Amino acid sequence: MVDGFAAGRKGLTAVDREMLLGWREPVDGIFEVQRKEHKEGMRSSC
Known about the structure:
30% of the residues lie in helices and 0% in strands. The chain has helices at 2-7, 14-21. The mean pLDDT is 81.
């Protein structure tokens, strides 16, 4: 699924494509949320 998404995004830089394709493998484990960002602190690349 990630491969198809990346293939459809021709404008990705090599670094962005590498990061995106790194999401193919799931990460299993326990995670702790330490803080919540406010909407003003969130950014989107879309």
